[in-house]
Specification:
Blueprint: E1 2-8, E2 12-14, E3 21-22, E4 25-26, E5 30-33, E6 36-41, H1 43-56, E7 63-66, E8 73-76, H2 86-91, E9 93-94, H3 99-111, E10 122-123, E11 127-129, E12 132-134, E13 141-147, E14 163-172, E15 174-181, H4 182-185, H5 190-201, E16 221-227, E17 240-243, E18 253-255, H6 257-263, E19 275-279, H7 280-283, H8 287-296, E20 299-301, H9 304-319
Parallel strand pairs: 4-14, 19-20
Antiparallel strand pairs: 1-15, 1-16, 2-14, 3-4, 5-6, 6-12, 7-8, 9-10, 11-15, 12-15, 13-14, 16-19, 17-18
Length: about 325
C-alpha cells in the first residue's frame, strides 16, 4: 500500500531559502519552466525541518544539527541504527567508507553487541519528496536592508562599516509532493510514521542558511491518495490558480483541476474512494460540488490538519494488518 500526497502552502512573501550569493545579493534558488523562472525550496531543507519537528515530538534521533560552526555541521550519536533511531529509519543514511574503514566499523558494531546482520552502510529514505515549487513566477523583486556598523568600543565587530544587503524575494505559495510505501513503514515503529505524517501537517521552520523570515510550509490545501498503485497516477504538481479574488488584498483561489474533473466523470478517471482532499480547496468549493464528490466516495475536510489525522488512522490500521 502506498500513500501519495501534494501539499499547497499559503501565499506569503518568501525570502526563506538562501542559495548562492552574488557579492551582497542573496539569491533564491530557481528552476526554469517554459519562459519563466520559479522559486524552489529543496527537499533537503524540508526534511531537515521535519527532523527537528520529530525531535520536539520526543522521537529518538541520531543526527543533531550544530548551529555554531563555521560551516554546515552535524553530530551523530552512533552508527546508524534504523531499529533505534527514527531519523535513520525514516530518512535513510550513507556511511562513506572504503574497505579498510568498513572492516573497522564492522568490528566496532560487533564490539557494541549489535546484530551485525541488521547493520548496513546505506539505507534508502522511507519518505520520498521532491522540490517545493512556487506557483508564481519570480518577478525580480528585491528588498534592501542595512547592517549597522559596530563602533570601536564594542565587544566585537563584524564589520568596520555599515553594509547594504540586497535580498531577492517572491510572493507565492509553494507546492510539493511526497510519497510513502506503507509496507516499508510497517517494518519500523508505527508511531514514527504517524508522527511523520503529523509533522508534514504542521511543517514549519524550513529555511536556508541564516534565514530570518517566517514562512509556513504546512498545507493550506492537501490531496492524498491511499492506494495499491505504485504511482500517483496524476500530475503531482497539480495545484493551479483557478480564480482571482474579487476582494482587495485577498488570496487568489487555487484548485486541483485534473483531480476534481476526473472525479466528476460518469466513469471517474481515478477511484474516488482512494482520495482525501482537505483545506482551503474544500472551503472554496460550492456545496453542490462537495456533495457530489462525497457521494462518489472522496473524503473531504475543511481542515488540512484534521484530514491528515484521518489518513493517519487509516495508515495505522493498514500497518497493523487490519
Amino acid at each position: 500500500m502506498n500513500l501519495f500526497g501534494t501539499v499547497l502552502t499559503y501565499t506569503a512573501p518568501s525570502a526563506n531559502y538562501r542559495g548562492e550569493s552574488e557579492l551582497n545579493r542573496t539569491t533564491m534558488q530557481k528552476i526554469t519552466d517554459g519562459r519563466s523562472e520559479y522559486p524552489i525550496i529543496s527537499p533537503e531543507a524540508m526534511r531537515n525541518a521535519i527532523r527537528e519537528i520529530l525531535r520536539t515530538y520526543g522521537l529518538p534521533m541520531n543526527r543533531t544539527r550544530l548551529h555554531d560552526e563555521e560551516q554546515l555541521a552535524v553530530h551523530f550519536d552512533s552508527y546508524p541504527d534504523p531499529q533505534k533511531f527514527a531519523d535513520d529509519f525514516l530518512f535513510g543514511y550513507l556511511i562513506a567508507a572504503g574497505k579498510k574503514d568498513r572492516d573497522r566499523i564492522r568490528k566496532e558494531i560487533k564490539a557494541q553487541k549489535r546484530d551485525e546482520s541488521l547493520f548496513t552502510f546505506k539505507r534508502d529514505s522511507v519518505l520520498r519528496m521532491n522540490l517545493a515549487k512556487g506557483l508564481e513566477a519570480y518577478r525580480h523583486s528585491t528588498v534592501f536592508t542595512q547592517s549597522p556598523m559596530a563602533d570601536e568600543s564594542s565587544a566585537y565587530r563584524n564589520d568596520s562599516g555599515s553594509s547594504l544587503l540586497h535580498r531577492e524575494t517572491a510572493e507565492t505559495a509553494f507546492q510539493y509532493p511526497f510519497a510513502l510505501n506503507l509496507n516499508d513503514c510497517a517494518q519500523g515503529d508505527h508511531e514514527w510514521t504517524l508522527s511523520l505524517l503529523k509533522a508534514i501537517g504542521e511543517l514549519n521552520g524550513v529555511a536556508g542558511n541564516h534565514a530570518r523570515s517566517y514562512f509556513e510550509m504546512a498545507p493550506a490545501s492537501i490531496s492524498l491518495r491511499l492506494t495499491e498503485s505504485l504511482v500517483a497516477g496524476y500530475k503531482t504538481y497539480g495545484f493551479q490558480r483557478t480564480k482571482e479574488s474579487d476582494r482587495p488584498g485577498a488570496e487568489p483561489q487555487f484548485g486541483f483541476p485534473e483531480l476534481i474533473d476526473g472525479f466528476r466523470q460518469t466513469k471517474p478517471d481515478y477511484p474516488p474512494g482512494e482520495f482525501f482532499v482537505g483545506g482551503r480547496i474544500v472551503k472554496e468549493m460550492p456545496e453542490s460540488l462537495q456533495k457530489e464528490l462525497t457521494e462518489k466516495g472522496v473524503t473531504l475536510d475543511r481542515s488540512a490538519q484534521r484530514l491528515v489525522a484521518t489518513v493517519s488512522e487509516r495508515v495505522a490500521k493498514i500497518m497493523k494488518g487490519k
